[in-house]
Every structure is written in structure tokens, then in C-alpha cells.
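Checklist before submission:
- one chain only
- standard amino acids only
- sequence pasted in full

Submission:
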Amino acid sequence: MNCVSILGRLTKDPDIRITKDDAGFYVLFTLASARGKDKVSFIPCIAYGKTAETIGNYVKKGTKIYVQGYIDTYTKNEKSTLSIVVTEVGFAENKNKEGDV
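Returned file contents:
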């Protein structure tokens, strides 16, 4: 079973792109996730469809989110790249502070 769950913050705003056949769009982003007290992993992620729409509309640099998905690899110019294909996203913090409308 290929299943991944990660909690982290976006390192920059999501990069929204249109598919080659103009059938929809997808988003690319990197999550910074703590691995203990002094270590951080930077994880490349991609999302499609409704998940991409949610991330593109509501998530910005620094937003803490929880993602679920699976690991995917691809090879380009003899280099293999690993990324997480996000199938579900959840917000890990409330943006509205007490007293905000």
C-alpha cells in the first residue's frame, strides 16, 4: 500500500498550472515538515482536480495544512524525482483569531 500523511507549512504560494490539454489545472507546492527538534524535511507535492482547486483558492505561503496522498516518482533527463500526489487536504489551524469577523 502506498499511502502518505504529512503535516507541514507551505514554503511559498502554490504554483497553479493548466494541464497540457486544457482539461483542468493542478498545483505544485512544497511542504516543510518537522522531523524532530532541529530537522526539517522539504517535500514536493502536486494536487489535481478539486483538491488543487481548494489549495489554489485557500492556501498561501506559511499556511499549515495536513495532506494525504501517495508517493509518485518520475524520471526526466536521467534524474528520478519523488513527490507526493495529494488526494486530500485539511487545514491545521484557524486563520480567524478571537475578535476577528
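Reviewer check: The CA atoms of residues 32 and 53 lie 21 Å apart.
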